[in-house]
């Protein structure tokens, strides 16, 4: 059989597309991470292999082959190995351009490329990738698992039945520059760079920035990132429509929560316990150091976060166990963990607004009832006045009703009767006038008639 020359590893267009899209988003990844994102059903295959290592080798074989074929095309590079010994892959400049086409993104939307990630074990990029997977929670296609052992099918079914994650692969971008000065393409020195940006309106998360930490950095360094975030969020610029708005809002849609609360977009901190610094202590220290950025104003039954950054923290372990819908997230300034949507939102403000709206409706209903009790009734038919009739009855100007104690119908009938009576009276008076006029004429004629003998003879 002739050996393939174009794609020696025998990969399909679909598999190579998987590798391009995943690397286009994550920038650097292992075959295992590519497979879990692009073909999650494969996670539940090969469960009868002798060891977990053999299972991983079998389920990632197709994507490893696709990455090798893309390397031959000059689109993918070998990026070294993780600390666990897994090979990592990353895109070349041509590969990044090809991925942009597959992802339907502009080149400036693709984000930066990590440099020499594999040479240092790629610890940070690997954590970023695991956060993306834990947020998405890819669900396997059960139709592709027909014939697999019962245990594998049960595990796949459990994943399908679990709460959904946030968005899909295309909802994510990594290594995104957030310029405090300069442009999106050429940010100034001192600009922030988000590890992950999530835009998933269908999951009620129109915009979320994510920062990963392996518990190796000093809390002061992590807190300093939020100084950059604050400068970025406060930067204004004219949009294409000529209207000045926050720079971030010229690229991404504003979250509803931020519009209602006038807060900046939320930032999620995810700690992966790789380094020696305890994640819990890191959270507490960062929360204390960033207080000026997230502390809102207390209004008794709720807080207002106008001009603040909603900062939420969790660990990768909690995120994996609970997912975005579980109680894995601590909003700085609160004393409990909650689901992500509650953590990045302002439920107490929402509840306060609901109470205010309910009270307003009750007040309006009470006022309407009191007003209704004062509504006049027609003295003839007993019907209640309409609002228009009531206003006319109370008017003291030209619009005042002719009969303010009657409804429209009775008023019309009364005015018609009065008009007819007036017409009849005018007719009677006219007839009386004519009769009197005739009598006057008759009297004048009689007065002019001759009197005496000669007058009588001529007659």
Could you explain the architecture of this structure?
- By secondary structure, the chain is of the alpha+beta class.
- The protein has 3 domains: 12-118, Arc Repressor Mutant, subunit A, CATH 1.10.10; 163-345, no CATH class; 375-439, no CATH class.
- The chain has 17 helices and 14 strands.
- The protein has helices at 13-26, 31-38, 52-59, 61-72, 93-103, 123-136, 150-161, 219-234, 256-261, 279-289, 291-294, 316-322, 340-344, 347-373, 387-394, 408-448, 453-458, and strands at 28-30, 76-81, 87-91, 172-178, 192-200, 205-213, 236-238, 244-246, 267-271, 297-298, 303-304, 311-315, 329-331, 337-338.
- Strands 4-5-6-9-12-13-14 form a 7-stranded mixed β-sheet, with helices on both faces. The chain has a 3-stranded antiparallel β-sheet with strand order 1-3-2.
- A hairpin with a 4-residue loop joins strand 10 and strand 11 (303-304).
- Helix 1 (13-26) crosses helix 2 and helix 8 packs across helix 10.
- The protein is elongated.
- The chain starts with 12 loop residues before the first helix and ends with a helix.
- The mean pLDDT is 88.
């Amino acid at each position: 059989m002739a050996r393939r020359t174009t794609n020696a590893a025998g990969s399909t267009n679909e598999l190579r597309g998987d590798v391009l899209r995943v690397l286009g988003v994550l920038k650097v990844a292992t075959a295992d991470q590519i497979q879990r994102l692009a073909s999650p059903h494969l996670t539940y295959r090969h469960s009868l292999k002798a060891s977990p290592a053999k299972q991983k080798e079998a389920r990632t074989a197709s994507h490893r082959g696709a990455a090798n074929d893309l390397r031959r095309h000059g689109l993918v590079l070998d990026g070294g190995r993780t600390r666990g010994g897994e090979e990592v892959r990353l895109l070349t400049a041509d590969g990044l351009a090809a991925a942009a086409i597959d992802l339907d993104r502009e080149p400036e939307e693709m984000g930066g490329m990590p440099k020499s990630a594999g040479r240092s074990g790629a610890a940070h990029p690997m954590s970023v990738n695991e956060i993306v997977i834990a947020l998405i929670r890819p669900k396997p296609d059960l139709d592709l698992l027909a014939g697999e052992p019962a245990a594998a099918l049960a595990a796949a079914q459990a994943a399908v039945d679990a709460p959904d994650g946030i968005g899909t692969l295309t909802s994510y971008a990594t290594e995104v520059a957030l310029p405090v000065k300069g442009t999106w393409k050429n940010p100034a020195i001192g600009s922030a760079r988000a590890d992950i940006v999530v835009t998933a309106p269908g999951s009620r998360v129109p915009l979320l920035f994510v920062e990963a930490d392996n518990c190796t950095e000093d809390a002061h360094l992590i807190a300093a990132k939020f100084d950059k975030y604050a400068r970025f969020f406060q930067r204004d610029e004219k949009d294409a429509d000529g209207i000045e708005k926050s720079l971030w809002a010229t690229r991404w849609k504003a979250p509803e929560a931020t519009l209602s609360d006038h807060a900046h977009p939320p930032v999620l901190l995810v700690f992966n316990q790789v380094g020696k610094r305890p994640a819990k202590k890191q959270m507490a220290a960062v929360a204390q150091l960033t207080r000026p950025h997230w502390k809102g104003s207390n209004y008794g039954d709720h807080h207002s976060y106008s001009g603040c950054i909603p900062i939420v923290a969790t660990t990768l372990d909690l995120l994996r166990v609970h997912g975005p819908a579980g109680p894995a997230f601590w909003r700085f300034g609160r004393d409990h963990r909650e689901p992500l949507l509650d953590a990045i939102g302002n439920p107490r403000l929402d509840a306060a607004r609901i109470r205010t709206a309910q009270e307003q409706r009750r007040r309006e209903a009470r006022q309407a009832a009191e007003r209704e009790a004062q509504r006049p009734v027609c003295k003839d038919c007993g019907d209640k006045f309409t609002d228009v009739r009531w206003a006319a009855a109370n008017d003291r100007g030209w619009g005042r009703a002719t009969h303010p104690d009657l409804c429209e119908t009775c008023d019309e009938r009364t005015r018609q009767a009065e008009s007819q009576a007036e017409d009849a009276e005018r007719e009677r008076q006219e007839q009386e006038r004519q009769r009197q006029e005739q009598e006057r004429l008759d009297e004048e004629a009689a007065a002019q008639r001759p009197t005496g003998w000669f007058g009588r003879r001529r007659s």
